[in-house]
Amino acid sequence: MPADTPPLSRSVEDYLKAIYALTERDEPASTSSIAEALDIQPASVSGMVKRLAESGYLEHSPYRGVKLTDEGTRVALQVVRRHRILETYLSRRLGYSWDDVHEEAERLEHAASDELIDRMSAALENPRHDPHGAPIPSRSGVVEEGTHPFLSEIEPGATVRIQAVRDDDSERLRYMESRGLMPGVVVSIEAKAPFDGPIRLMVGTKPETIGFELARRIRVAPVE
After folding, report:
1. What does pTM read for this prediction?
2. Domain of 71?
């Protein structure tokens, strides 16, 4: 943003970051999905969506959802970059565990300046991924291309490598770590129960069974 542009509020940044995550596959985000992501009432979302659209950050089609404009995407990626650099710094330099860094980064991302984030990134030798495997946008807003599918979308018989996991639930992160479900680990899909039932897989050489909802928090890529 230009130097004379006042900083955006924490609420606006949270909205733009949430909508960015919800529209990574180029599908509009609904009011209900935004409300769920931010843990607020849908009625509150409608008013903010209107204001963000009027400010040029969103494209809003009634009954079809919202998408970020180029300006909205630029701001969202700034927030995402701050969050993921903070997570990485807290993990690598301050000894935070991967299940603790998210909430701390959530608090700090709205106060940290871009200069501070750049210095943290340089001190870390410009990491490309955060502790949970998510790509870190560059200073210019370039982010690693390609949206990896969720583990829940992979059919039995396939072998994949975990690329990233959602970072917003400490309890689930601890559970995944205890089962070896971490970025870089290779897993093979053995069987999937119908109607979003449990998924049976091999984590390395160890058999595991996980729920469908947990599998939707894990992004994977083919094993090369």
Report:
1. 0.89
2. 1-145
